[in-house]
C-alpha cells in the first residue's frame, strides 16, 4: 500500500500543483474520469450528458459546455474543445474546490475571483466581456424551463426586470438615450459581493461532492 501511494503521489505531483487537489482526490477523480470515458483518453459532451447527477440540473447544458470551454483552463485561450483529457477535466473541476483552512486571505480572494470568473464566462457565451440582456435571458429561460409552468414570456420579463435592476445599480445616472450594454465582470463581482461562494458553488458531480473534500476537516 505504502509504495503504491508514493508512486501515485509522484504521478500526480504536477496535477497537485496545477489544480490544488490532493493526490487522493485526483486518484478518485481519475477513476471517475475513466468510468465516464469508458477507459478512453478523452471525453466528449455526450459522455457528460449521461451523468445521472446532472440529469435534473436546470443549467445542465451550461455546466457541460463549461467543461469544454477553453477559458476555464487557466490559460489565455478562447473557444471550445471537442474532447477533453483528464488534466483539462481536472482543471475545470478545480474551480469548484472549496478553500482550505490553512489558505491565506489572498489565496481565498484569488479563488473566489476565479469562481466568479467561471460563473461569468458561463453567462458570457460569446466571450465579449459583457453579459448582455440576450445572454442573460437565455440562462433565465433555461432555469425556468424546468419548472414547466412558466412560459418564455415570463422568463423574458424576469430577466428584463433583473437586468434593469442591475443597470440602475451600476449606472445610476444613465440618461434616457443611453443604452445599457450589459454586465461587465466588475459589475458582476459587485452584484455577487455578498454571496458566500464557498458553500454555494459546488456540484454533486459523479457522486463526488467537492464540499465534502475538505482536507483534514470533518464537518460532521
Ligand atoms: Ca457576451
Automatic annotation (TrEMBL):
<dbReference type="InterPro" id="IPR052490">
    <property type="entry name" value="CHP3"/>
</dbReference>
<dbReference type="InterPro" id="IPR011992">
    <property type="entry name" value="EF-hand-dom_pair"/>
</dbReference>
<keyword id="KW-0449">Lipoprotein</keyword>
<keyword id="KW-0539">Nucleus</keyword>
<dbReference type="GO" id="GO:0030027">
    <property type="term" value="C:lamellipodium"/>
</dbReference>
<keyword id="KW-0221">Differentiation</keyword>
<dbReference type="GO" id="GO:0005509">
    <property type="term" value="F:calcium ion binding"/>
</dbReference>
<keyword id="KW-0963">Cytoplasm</keyword>
<dbReference type="InterPro" id="IPR002048">
    <property type="entry name" value="EF_hand_dom"/>
</dbReference>
<dbReference type="GO" id="GO:0032587">
    <property type="term" value="C:ruffle membrane"/>
</dbReference>
<dbReference type="GO" id="GO:0004860">
    <property type="term" value="F:protein kinase inhibitor activity"/>
</dbReference>
<dbReference type="GO" id="GO:0005634">
    <property type="term" value="C:nucleus"/>
</dbReference>
<dbReference type="GO" id="GO:0030154">
    <property type="term" value="P:cell differentiation"/>
</dbReference>
<dbReference type="Pfam" id="PF13405">
    <property type="entry name" value="EF-hand_6"/>
</dbReference>
<dbReference type="InterPro" id="IPR018247">
    <property type="entry name" value="EF_Hand_1_Ca_BS"/>
</dbReference>
<keyword id="KW-0519">Myristate</keyword>
<keyword id="KW-0966">Cell projection</keyword>
<feature type="domain" description="EF-hand">
    <location>
        <begin position="111"/>
        <end position="146"/>
    </location>
</feature>
<comment type="similarity">
    <text>Belongs to the calcineurin regulatory subunit family. CHP subfamily.</text>
</comment>
<keyword id="KW-0649">Protein kinase inhibitor</keyword>
<keyword id="KW-0106">Calcium</keyword>
<keyword id="KW-0479">Metal-binding</keyword>
<dbReference type="GO" id="GO:0005737">
    <property type="term" value="C:cytoplasm"/>
</dbReference>
<keyword id="KW-0472">Membrane</keyword>
<keyword id="KW-1003">Cell membrane</keyword>
<protein>
    <recommendedName>
        <fullName>Calcineurin B homologous protein 3</fullName>
    </recommendedName>
</protein>
